[in-house]
Task: inverse folding
């Protein structure tokens, strides 16, 4: 643990209760203190039909050797313009209009608060501004590309703003872009069970990274692409409805490589830790 944030029982007693009494979430206080040379990454995922516990577990393993400070937002209210102002990379896997559950800092919740609305205009504008003007990387996973009501975000992702689903089935990934840094040297692989989402790319500047085919229905579609947005970079990877996708070693390597590319950094060899 970074010594700047090391706490003891005494300091918790002295300062922690005051913090909670003041209505300040300690995650904000820690997360906002980015030291020079640190890489700050925020993940915002998990909704009613997508398992946020699984996502966090596997992403922690995937990026455990990166040396980054990796944070997991527990509610929409924490993705603020202030929080994004020094974020290097935002990874998102969210859809819907509200958080699945209302946020509470209590250990035992008898009556849960009302959930936050997802993607308030301030959040959407802050994400786009930080990507385009400041160069924050953005990796949109799975259902993030299926929020048609947020047209500005869909435009940044280069996808037509329509909502679509897909059958659960084995999915094969193929036609990898052989020279792009994210997918070079990738060979075909399959995920045992996932959605083969069908999204239409609506931006001629997008680079298709690979395609996917549903084994049962035979439908083939684009499954990953990337776009440069002024100062920033955006990657869209559509798989990820099930834990089969999140734990697949090759798909986790795609997460790793996409994150480094979005950060505009050289991509080191993928080595998954615990």
Result:
């Amino acid at each position: 643990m970074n010594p700047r944030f090391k706490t003891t029982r005494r300091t918790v007693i002295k300062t922690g209760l005051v913090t909670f009494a003041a209505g300040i979430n300690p995650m904000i206080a820690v997360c906002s203190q980015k030291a020079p040379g640190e890489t700050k990454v925020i993940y915002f995922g998990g909704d009613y039909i997508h398992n946020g516990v699984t996502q966090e577990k596997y992403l922690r393993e995937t990026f455990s050797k990166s040396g980054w400070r990796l944070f997991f937002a527990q509610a929409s209210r924490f993705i603020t313009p202030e929080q994004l102002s020094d974020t290097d990379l935002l990874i998102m896997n969210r859809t819907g209009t509200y958080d699945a559950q209302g946020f509470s800092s209590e250990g035992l919740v008898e009556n849960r608060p009302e959930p936050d609305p997802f993607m308030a205009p301030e959040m959407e504008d802050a994400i786009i501004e930080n990507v385009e003007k400041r160069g924050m990387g953005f990796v949109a996973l799975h259902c993030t590309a299926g929020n048609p009501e947020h047209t500005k975000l869909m435009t940044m992702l280069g996808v037509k703003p329509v909502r679509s689903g897909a059958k659960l089935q084995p999915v094969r990934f193929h036609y990898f872009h052989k020279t792009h840094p994210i997918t070079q040297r990738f060979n075909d692989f399959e995920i045992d069970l996932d959605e083969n989402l069908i999204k239409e790319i609506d931006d001629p500047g997008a680079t298709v990274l690979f395609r996917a085919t549903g084994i049962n229905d035979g439908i083939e579609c684009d499954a990953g692409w990337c776009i440069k947005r002024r100062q920033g970079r955006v990657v869209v990877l559509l798989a990820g409805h099930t834990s089969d996708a999140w734990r697949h070693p090759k798909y986790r390597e795609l997460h790793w490589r996409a994150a480094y590319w979005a950060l505009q950094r050289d991509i080191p060899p993928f080595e998954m830790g615990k």
